[in-house]
Amino acid sequence: MDEALQIRSGFSTQVGKRDSNEDYVAVYDGDIRQRSTKGVVAAIADGMGGARGGRQAAETTVRGFFDAYLNLPETL
């Protein structure tokens, strides 16, 4: 029997009164070795309620967070 932690992730979103949803969601679960040092991380950014560039801002924020987190030295 495999003792490794099994992870499933997903998300659901609701547009509400707007024409589109500008939120951005990402999950990092890596492989078993990566999980032992970086764990499992999820990030959600609100797309700024329909403001111009909201989708790009949300995606840039989440991607920037993951880039910074995954490049931290393993000693932290």
Keywords, separated by commas or semicolons:
76 residues, two-stranded antiparallel ribbon, 2 strands, alpha+beta
Low-pLDDT runs of 5+ residues are none
Structural class: alpha+beta
* Helix percent band: 25-40%
Distance between the termini: 32 Å
**Main sheet properties:** 2 strands, antiparallel
Output the radius of gyration.
16 Å
Number of strands: 2
What string, H for helix and E for strand, traces the elements in order? Answer: EHEH
Chain-averaged pLDDT: 85
Inertia-based shape: elongated
> Order of strands across the widest beta sheet?
1-2
Number of helices: 2
β-strand amount: 5-15%
Summarize the SSE layout with pairings.
Layout: E1 24-28, H1 32-38, E2 41-45, H2 54-70
Antiparallel strand pairs: 1-2
Q: What is this structure, in a nutshell?
A:
The chain is an alpha+beta fold.
